[in-house]
Each structure stands twice: as structure tokens, then as C-alpha cells.
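@channel anyone free to eyeball this complex?
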Amino acid sequence: MLKIYFATSNEHKFKEAEEILSKQGITTSHFKFSHTEIRSDSLEEIADEAAETAYSQLGKPDAVVFVEDTGLFIEALNGFPGTYSAWVQKKIGSEGLLRLMAGEKNRSASFKTCIVAKDSEGTHSFLGECKGTITENLRGKSGFGYDPIFIPDGESATFAEKICLKNKLSHRFKSLLLFADYLASKQRI
Amino acid sequence: MLKIYFATSNEHKFKEAEEILSKQGITTSHFKFSHTEIRSDSLEEIADEAAETAYSQLGKPDAVVFVEDTGLFIEALNGFPGTYSAWVQKKIGSEGLLRLMAGEKNRSASFKTCIVAKDSEGTHSFLGECKGTITENLRGKSGFGYDPIFIPDGESATFAEKICLKNKLSHRFKSLLLFADYLASKQRI
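replying in thread with the prediction:
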């Protein structure tokens, strides 16, 4: 039986992934992993380096170890806050992004999650994306991070106003499903 | 004769440091060095890792290799853009910082440079700081980066309006002088 480890220091992220993957029949273990990330404008590059490090730290060559990195990329701000989204949220918050976007007509943005899984065969990446727009004001109390200022395309509520949207549309959900497909095909072999 | 290398990919930074150090009787060579920096909120931590890497890449154990890392820390923005200043400048520019600071009464900010030098005896760090305030508008054309929005304490012009201020007051200048003192004491021994 293939052992799957999610390497993250974030308990919340682990619980979310565990639940989604268990619905796909996949049992996930938590590898409490914390390390100094590299600086890069590419989610994949950051996740790639983290997956390599986590895999070698765990020391279980037969397991699959995966990590994820997520960012919000705002078109009118040249992709800011991008791969630094969590850090920017801590410093200036969603309110700061709204101030930066004041008077801006182009509200297009995209949430992206990149999962990189490492096993004895190599590394594999799975990109989930959710396109949408940035609101003019904070809206809603659910979720976390930039959820109160992001409306997914085709909807009229923010993730924070209607958290159920997140479970079926989110970047993280999509990347986890791609990863689950990969695991299913691997286990069939 | 002690050989001093400045490890940087930035030709402009090298020229500036070379000029300041030559006035202190120190000859500096350029080690064209580029690597993937770590993510950290501490200039010293970033410079420390870079100095270690540069020293081992250069492969001259008898030399002194130094690197520098600089950031603008704005009090009302919890230290934003800090160690990510160059990246934030590329994405949202000085104009972006002014939008974030619109209506903010507390304009206090600080430019900091950390030099870390590595030699066979270990690592040594030299912190230069220049306190000041953030303007309400872009002012002046000289310099680069955040120079048009930063007025050093005790002055009424921005670095970009009066570039000579930068040469005697700047964070980078101060850290280079501390480093020069260290080199002088080392050579006396």
C-alpha cells in the first residue's frame, strides 16, 4: 500500500487536503515539515525545491511526499502579491490590496495552487487555477486570507460570503483532484 | 595583501561600493555572483546565507567575500516592503507604496543595509540604517528605487531631489564604512 505524506507546517491546510483526498479513497499522513523556502516568482519552482527537501528529510524512499504552494496573482498589479501572498497578507492585509486597486478598472485576478509530489520515480506537478475578480470592498467573514476580496468567475459572491464555492471551484481543490488522479493511475499499475 | 571580493550580480551596486571603499584605501574586486536567495524577514539571515554560498563558490579561502542586502521598512505597514523591497518595487513601484500610505499620518520609515563578510575566521555583519519619512508624492528624478519618496531625518529633500545626501547619509554608505573599519583593524593585526 502506497503511503502518501503531505509535508506542511500548516495544520489547516493538512486537514483540508486530507478531507478532499479521503473522498477520493486516499489516506494522507501529515509530515510536519518546516524549512526556509527559496525566493522565486514561480510557484512551481518554490514547490519543487520544497518537495525535494521534504522527500529527503522524511527518509522513506517508497512513499510519495507532496507539498503545495498557493498565490493570488492580480493582473493590474503585474502579478502582485503572487508567490509572496501569505507574507503580503500578514503585512498589509486584504485592505492593503484594495487600496492598491483603488480606481483600477481591470479587476482580473487568479488564484493558483501548485502541488509538487516527489517519489522514487521523480517529481510531478499539478496546477490548479481559479480565475476571478477583485471586489471594491471587503465582503464576507468565512475562509481566510484574500477570500473576502475574491469573486470566482461566473459567481456573484466572494469565497468569504459563500464558502461552499471554495470547495468546488478552488485552485487548491482542483490541484488536489489532479494529484488524486495521478495517484489512482499509479496504484492501478 | 588581503583580497576583498564583493559578490553581487548588480554592476551598479559594485561601482558604488568600489568607490566608497577606495576612498578608505581598500581595493575591491567584483565576484559576479547570482544565486537563489532564501525567504526571510531578516536582512541579516538572507545576507548570511548568501555570503556562505558566495565564499564557497569563489573557492579562495584566503580572501574576504562580502554581500549586502538592503530594504525599506515602513512603520505603518508593519515593515513592508522590507526584505522584499526590490521585488515590490518591480511589481507596484513607489507609486504603489504611496497609494498604500494614502491618508496615513505615521510616515516613519527606515532604510537598512546589512553587509555580511565571510573569511576563513567566520562571518561578520555590519548594519547601516538611515531613518526618515515617506513623502506624500513622488519627488525628484535622481537615484533609483524608493529614492523619490524617502526624506532622511533632518533634511527636507528626498534622496532623488538631492542625491548628494545619499552619499553621506545612506544606509549603504554607513554599512560600508563599518565594514571598512573592520578591514582596517584586520590588516593592522
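from a first look: The longest strand of chain A covers residues 122-134.
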